[in-house]
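sorry for the late reply, my laptop died twice this morning and i had to redo everyting from scratch. anyway the thing you sent over, i finally got around to it. pasting the sequence first so we're on the same page, its 153 residues, then the predicted structure underneath. double check i copied it right bc i was rushing
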Amino acid sequence: MRIQDHRQDDTPEINLIPLIDVLLCLLIFFVITTTFDARSVLKLELPRADGQPAEAQAKALSVLVNAQGRYFVGDQEVLRTDLQSLKDTLREIAGDDRDRPVLLRADARTPHQSVVTALDAIGQLGFHRVAIATAPEAGKPAAASAVSGPATR
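ok and here's the structure:
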């Protein structure tokens, strides 16, 4: 005698809910840990100066020095604080364009040696247009004082 099974065959299926949960957790993790704007993280207190603001330069290479003497070129942090590492990072980001203006932004509490090292690296690489950013006096617009000529020792 032949017995028939009237149950439906189980078809294999892929349950996507656990996969969606894992992907959502990964997405949240990456959003939280990603730095969107490095400049917003750095709290710089620029030195005060009473001067005329220089003309704005849209493609200026930004070199930042924070209060601890750490260097940031563009959006990239220089891993070590020695002269050669700073020069290598500047060379990597700027390429062969030595006519590009450089804007040096140093915190007012930065050790003087860190600023001198930055100026030395900029000068040794052959950049001729260097501006140092300062904060305005109360009630005046921000200024960037331009340094003419090569920035050498």
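The helical segments are 17-33, 38-41, 83-94, 112-124.
thats about all i looked at so far, will dig more tmrw
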